[in-house]
Amino acid sequence: MSAFLRPAASQDQDPDPETSGRRYRPVTSQFAIRPPVSVVIPAMNEAENLPYVFKTLPDWIHEVVLVDGNSTDDTVQVARDLCPAVKVVQQLGKGKGDALITGFAACTGEIIVMVDADGSADGGEILRYVSALVGGADFAKGSRFANGGGTDDMTLIRKLGNRVLCSIVNHKFGARYTDLCYGYNAFWKRCLDEIALDCAGFEVETLMNIRVVKAGLRVQEIPSHEFVRIHGTSNLRAVRDGLRVLKVILRERGERRGRPRPQPRLAIAPAANRGDVS
């Protein structure tokens, strides 16, 4: 049995004096986990989608970190109504990469899970990701094209582009990925020191996938199903974003690992007397 897994019934027993005081969190009737799990949700004008996102999140997670990209709708208020303990962090820069880096810095959990705010991800799958991590992986990478995965929200041109770019990364960096541009991933927080993210845009997902390979981290793909965005319009543009991803691939191919980790600017929104985690 993994050092991180024990039957849920023994959650209140901790014979190890070095870890006394750290409780196990029941996940299923079969096991519980010790590492606290943080879920990071970057969001901008996603008030209509958040109820669907929060509905699927497991109740055993340690914290939810919502990174608000200067929304003009009720995104923040809806998040607080759905989860009074949500930690709301105001994004000071722009782009998905910037939002994620900001959210990662605000996490207090040992495990971090990335979830999109458009309702396309099933929070119930978090169990698969966490299981892979406590089972020995450093980075649990979601894949819509691994056996058991799927997608309802990709055009033919995007599928083709993803496949081509994925093949390039596999060839250039020695990876064995089946999916490249997917935002549902999980990892141990300590991995951030190894991959030193410095990307502000959508291509941050590709950058993470490349740098975990360059850093020699243990990666496990997790079959995942992507659903159609529930409300609103996606900001993705196949050609534009594909070229940005390609640029990152070419840049990373010519660079060595080992760079100083950027320090993101943080602005945690006031709790507004709603009991937010600070």
UniProtKB/TrEMBL annotation:
Pfam families: Glycos_transf_2. Keywords: Transferase. Residues 1-27, 256-278 are annotated as: Disordered. Residues 38-193 form the Glycosyltransferase 2-like domain. GO terms for molecular function: transferase activity. The keyword Transferase applies. Belongs to the glycosyltransferase 2 family. This is Glycosyltransferase family 2 protein. The lineage of its organism: Bacteria, Bacillati, Actinomycetota, Actinomycetes, Kitasatosporales.
